[in-house]
Amino acid sequence: MAIISASVLGLEVALMRTLSISRWHHFAYLVVALALLGFGVSGTYLGLYTPRLLPRFLTLIRGLTLALAVSITLCYRLAEALPLNIRYVLFSGEQIFYLICYQALIFLPFLLAGVLIGLTLIRFSSSVHLVYGANLIGSGAGPIIAVGMMLWLPPARLIQAAALAVWGAVFLWRTEPETKDFWWRTGIPLFAGLLLAIELTTLPVPVRLDPHKMLAELQRWQKQGDAHHLVTRHGPRARLDVFESSRLHYTLFAGLTATTPPPDQSLLLTDGDTAGPIFRIKNQDEAAILDHTPMSVAYRLIPGARVLLLGETSGVNVWLARRFGASHITMVVENPQMLELFRGPLANVAGHSFSGDDLEIHVASPRHYLEYSKEHFDIIQVVGAESMAAGVSGLLSLHENYLFTVEGMARCLEHLTPTGLISITRGLQSPPRDNIKILATLAESM
């Protein structure tokens, strides 16, 4: 029971990470909803059919365990094979059908797991405390194990690992004494295990990228010879990818007054989406294009400032602060693997932007850093908000940022010097939506 519970919760975590990479972060919420729905429907099913199931419990429980092991990997492969394009669901009946099929395939393993766990709890009601205890231990350990394994394995591989663990649990169920059929007791599980082993060792892991994600675009460039993939890192927080290309000229919000072109760049991606450009320069003098961005306004108003960069990713804003003579830069990075990249394989590429006597780096969420820090700054630049505002497609409409709350903005204000500034740069919307909300939040926090 503990193995099955751990595998199911590990599967849920792995699916959340995998679908955040291949699709969009909305699908992480979808996985949670479908997992809860699966267990809910299983309760209804057991309420109706338990009297018919209990007499054949031992036979059914092995069959359900084996079916769960097979469904974990098979349903994921079938779901990823569907030509689902989430942007067109509202405009295409075909895409609505694909979305329903996609949800049904993700839902099925959790339905089987719910029936299996629920039926076991009913069957052993006299010692339910032991069964439920094993269930809780597995449920608690599964996500922890999955998160730890993400440091070494891609999330899609963890889906296969969950299937393999459930398959191993088949042999731990005691068979009925009268069951003499070797093929049913051992042959079918071994055959299923052989298929899982073949799938695990020979077939590529299916990760069908949304064609509109930047990672998919850069992979197309790579096939054309227009881009070169530098590095990939998998982790529980995000998948990090870095590409270099002569076709990259990404400088967010650069104005028409710029007289110099952007420097050579690489592009950092998190979960397949753009996180920011990496300027391939050696010093701040080569970052002249940053003078023509709205982010530079705060630095022009307060020369030699003590600067706090909340949520910096690619090091561009470090160059900006240095270009305007910041006396000290404190940078808050959420992902420790990102810091390892910029101080390791990307150090030369990024011009050692994550090093220097003027730079102090903290690995924490921006909100957490503001809670425990006692320092005060002349400029607090909310780098994590620097993007085009959420579009009408709604792809970013559910992307939460815990810094943009009344309490979060209040913490920012508390860490300012008396003449300090908060710098938040966002894209325009028509009609305005996100930016008005940010202004209202700031006003309420004062």
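(the above was protein one; protein two follows)
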Amino acid sequence: MRKYPRRLYEVGKTPVQSRSMNHSCYLSNIQTVREELREDVWSELRESAIGVIVKLKELSYIWSAKVVHYFLANQLAIESSHEIWSLIDDSMPLRFSLYEFGEITGLNCDPFDKHDVWDVDHQEFWLEMNVPTSDGPTLLELQAIFPICRNWPREKRVMIGLLCLLSIGIFGISSNSRIPLHCAKRVMDIAAFQRYPWGRIGFSGLVDSIKVLTYEAKKSYTLHGCVHALLT
């Protein structure tokens, strides 16, 4: 019989889902993007480098915290900080790594290009959005723009839509948390945006949030990143 690493929790002692699982990758927020920014923007977002988030919304699938919790609660104790292994039925363990994440989502998971020296002057657009120029925007700030941006040029509405998708579907952060500035600015250059490995961002945020989880001490726990890849 093949031996695997020990379980994080002994059989019969895995934490039950008495704790609330939280995440911020709400597909309902993506529907609001569609309604507010209109169909011409929605179709362009669908074809973008992170268009899988739009397509996921269009699938209308149902999130199951119970299934995800079961996967997390049956993890094996492995040394790698970039993989998750889970033994579901005492037979073959399931691996979740950057490879599986890329296969599931289709997002670009290539290594970061250290030679990709790039920048853009973002200040005018940031001021137009009423966002501090020293930071990336929050989802709340982006949503506040919806009523006033309906008559803006399509290119600007697309940039706002991409920022919303980054906050909701890639970083999976709370609505008052800021997108890192160096990532947010890429929406202003479509080529720079399209070539960036957003899959690595979404995967790292997700796995990092899982690796620091404790299930017993707190009343809830929170996942970040592209959490829907755990179910798809």
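Reviewer note on protein two: The radius of gyration is 19 Å.
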